[in-house]
Write a structure and sequence with these properties.
Blueprint lengths: L18 H10 L2 E5 L8 H11 L3 E5 L5 E2 L2 E2 L13 E4 L3 H13 L4 E4 L6 H9 L3 E4 L3 H8 L2
Parallel strand pairs: 1-2, 1-5, 5-6, 6-7
Antiparallel strand pairs: 3-4
Helix pairs in contact: 3-4
């Protein structure tokens, strides 16, 4: 993948929730775990996590090998987070999304958001079958500005 280029994969099987459901998800979520957050401010995951903080969300960074980002304690995995998570925002390669979704299912988390460019049909199907709300291949920041700003 070339820097600055996002591969857009059309999802033939999966349909994202309608706008009113996305609005409700973003309004109801209070704590968002950002999986794959970068400590580098120029990276999208870092910028979007900072925006989520500005918008009043409790952000929990999840990334192995870092102890802190944005002044917040980071955790190596979702299972290490000691508090309730309302939504998991995933900034990882599509291939890695499956194991993250499986961890969300095991932890009985209510919702997972696979960021723009992260498309994993089997993972989305497993999450839906487990009763989770699933958003795939959408930017949480763009949707927030569209639906709540």
């Amino acid at each position: 993948m070339t820097r600055g280029f996002v591969l857009r994969l059309e999802s033939p099987m999966f349909t994202n929730p309608p706008p009113q459901a996305l609005r409700a998800l973003l309004k109801d979520a209070k704590t968002i775990a950002v999986v794959g957050i970068s400590p580098r401010p120029e990276r999208p995951s870092h910028r979007i996590a900072a925006r989520l903080l500005e918008w009043g969300y409790r952000v929990i960074p999840v990334r192995p090998a870092i102890s802190e980002v944005l002044g917040l304690k980071a955790y190596a995995s979702l299972s290490e987070v000691p508090e309730r998570i309302d939504l998991v925002d995933v900034f990882r390669n599509p291939e890695d999304a499956g194991s993250i979704v499986d961890e969300c299912i095991a932890l009985k988390l209510p919702a997972v958001w696979l960021q723009e460019g992260v498309v994993n049909e089997p993972a989305a199907a497993r999450a839906l079958a487990a009763g989770m709300t699933v958003v795939m291949d959408r930017c949480i920041s763009v949707e927030y500005r569209k639906l709540l700003a």
